[in-house]
Design goal:
The complex is a heterotrimer of chains A (383), B (279) and C (331). Chain A is an alpha+beta fold and 383 residues long. Helix content of chain A is 26%, strand content 34%. Chain A is built from ten helices and 21 strands. In chain A, helix 2 packs across helix 3. Chain B is built from 14 helices and no strands. The chains are: A alpha+beta (383), B mainly alpha (279), C mainly alpha (331). Chain B: One of its GO terms (cellular component) is plasma membrane.
Amino acid sequence: MTSIELDSVNKIYDSEGGEICAVNDMDLEIQEGEFLVFVGPSGCGKTTTLRMIAGLEDVTTGTIEFGDEDVTDLRARDRDIAMVFQDYALYPHMSVRDNIGFGLRLSTDIPESEIASMVEETAEMLGIEDLLPKKPSDLSGGQQQRVALGRAIIREPSVFLLDEPLSNLDAKLRDSMRKEIMELQQQLGITSVYVTHDQTEAMAMSDRVAVLNDGELQQCGPPEDVYRNPTNQFVAGFLGSPSMNFLEATVSSDGDTVTFNGDADFVYHSEASSIAEALGDRNRCTVGIRPEDLVVGAESGFNVTVTVVEAMGDENVVYAQVGDAEIRARVDSQHRLSAGDDILLGFDDDNVYLFDAETGDSLRTKDLDSAEETEKRITSPER
Amino acid sequence: MSVASKKPDLPVQFGVYISLLIVIVLTLVPFYWMIVGATLPQDQFFTYPPRFLPGTHFFENLADLRDRFPYLLSIWNSIFVATVYTVLSLFLCSLAGFAFAKYEFAYKEYLFYFILATVVLPVQIMIIPLFLLMANFGLLDTHIALILPFAANPVGIFLMRQSMKSIPDSWLDSARIDGASEFQLYYRIALPSVKPALAALAVILFLFQWNAFLYPLVVLTSEELFTIPLAIERLVGQHRLYFDQIMVATALAIIPITILFLLLQKYFVRGFAGTAYQP
Amino acid sequence: MSIREHSSIQAVRTEGRIARNRVRDSLPSFPGVPYLYILPFFIFFAVFLAFPVVYTLYLSFFEYHGVGEGFLFAIDLGVFAVEVPRISNVEFVGLENYTRMVGDGLFWLSMWNTVIITVFQMPLMVLVSLGVALALNASFIKLSGLQRTLIALPVSANFVAYSTIFLMIFSEQFGLANYVIQLVGFEPIAWQSDRWWARVMLAITLDWRWMGYNMLILFAGLQNIPGRLYEAAEIDGASAWQKFRYVTVPQLKPMLLFVIVLSTVGSMQLFSEPFIITEGGPSNSTITILYYIYDQAFVYFNLGYASALTYVLVGVVTALSIIEMKIGGED
């Protein structure tokens, strides 16, 4: 169990077309016992970062520390870590028993009899004691996943790394394994770093979530904070499903009223002072509204035509056209909407996000009170 | 494969079966003939019309053969040379193939395609210089001279690279985290993961050496070092009259490998399909 | 925070690690590993493959006078010295070895023999192996696997050993072949003493040895044709012949080409069979090119001339393969 500190970590690959910066100047502290999730689209550098923490990938510049120890140049096997891979990486020629005990046999001098009993205990903890004599190819995906977890935790590592461990499982199993991993991590209290491209998973599992894009850390914080107060348009759009609606608009101010003129037949007047404050003297901005904040049958709003309705059960996701832009709204299924309906979509001033039209930086987020609080914790990316 | 919805007419089916039967009989006759020859006493061998039923004289013929020529030693020589050669070549090819499949290094692609290009060269192109090399090393008329030359086998490195490429990087990374050294990655993870390909390659290499004739003919001169092909050639050349004994020799050369073929058929087939080498 | 009672694990681990790392760290560091892995292969490759290939070419411009003595050159670096021996005693003759071939009747005869045997042998073998592969792949055939195994049996036969059996089968007086031929009412055939029949005999022998091998390759090719192609053809109303012509043939073409090129390359290097069965006779009608090279090199020790012949053989084989692939490649 240890803390992890990344200090100005860069990863640059040489490629035929020149240098590619996979991770750019990453600063990050992971607390002892914390469950931190890296999330971002593919190619954002999250797996590269994890592999640098593991010691499987060289750090181009910068340092990585575990506790007070600089591990930047330490080999993977000397870092006292364990890792779970997307494809589980079980050795097909070894039984489950040998797979779980492999690391102990290689890196410790624990006598064989003790290894055997440790393997038994670990298997019991994960409920896989019946599988010990089997080969990995005889196991289902979920069972293989448990074996991979067993192989990782038996070594009592100080850092636990997980690289998209659930993405090969079907949806139902994924939900139950998600819970199991969280319980296991809480029980063992091992500092854990988890990589996923699935924002739902990231939100659900993490103590803190770190959003990456294009090799840069966009924002890191507790999931609710990041969700409510994204630092920029990318983070706002990445977290939440369906993702946030963005409408570009020109802004004109007339005393107390700010008028947004969307590029797509979208007009919106607001009298809220906080909006005017946030905008300053800008005359363009991007307006963001989360799908769940759109209301059908409000008194004011904008007229749209429903194009597609996805039934989700008690809720429906409604896709509608506003000029050229597409709007997604999550509405109660009682509204019984169907394609072709004309509806009025409204929203509350409090739920409006504003982003700088050029940089994408947040100008106004949802919860003004907590925004100031969390600002101290949020490491804002350097541009 | 053909999923004919309707079977062809019965006469057509019958014709196909008859044709296959003829092919099978023609295939098996020489094997049968060999057994007949090996088990008949010598005086019943050169008769006309020829005999069609096997006799019971196999062990007498074998004893006569052993008086004439140290043939069991030749069998041992063949097994020894082919086995050592196969192990050496498997080691060289799998280790280098592992590097080509799972590591990045300078000029990797060039080096690999350079090796691969030599696949098209017939073995014969190397024989004269190999003879001279062995003469200079003082290795003429030794088994080492048979074992060393074709151990760096381009087909072997190709097959090994192909199969090891399919090993997920995560297995190796996982082993690295588990504390494996780089060499342990090779022999504890990579090698066991490609066992079927290793077996197929072993079959190719073993048969290549087992069947080799021209090069051993050039290099070996002492009868006690002879491999099976050389021994049979010597018997045919110098003892042509003792065909019963020669047939015992061929039977001992062919039957064990045929049994091996029946047992390990899938590796044989996989090996043949994976090689453009007709040794 | 351990959930188990193995409190000693950390201490033991550290101790073990230190000891192990001492060994590991004496090994080359990470970036050197791949080079270390390819080094043994490349040493063997350079000495026993690359060097001989080049040296054969070199020798083809020389006349050989015996195994060399002394050193070609020596490198002395104090700590270690490399002495490169002169492996042969040779005299430069320019293109003489190549021009000599033009007037060498036996060379042309051996080329002709090799080509004739190939022409006799290959079409029959490819057709039969294709036919057998198709038959064994047909859905109505029972025991397909067993039949395949039996037909493939010769692939394991030692070249010299099986040649010896055929030497006996084609014995003119006592052989099985002539017995059967007389049984059905024909005159016995002069397998060993007639120039043309001797070549036919070698072709039959080769067909027996390689038919099963090629059948296995073609059968694998047939198995790899996706069943849905036949289903689609069936729905499109194709007849059995049309399915063969428009699905099987184009899909199998790469494999057929592979088999043909492989067989050509193999036949052009024919050696064991004529060496054992006919000893090149009668009157040199079954001397193959490789047989001739062997005679020149290791009976007469004209290693320079033999090297030149080898390169010509390689050239011819390469040219034939390219021609076959060109013809097979276009449709």
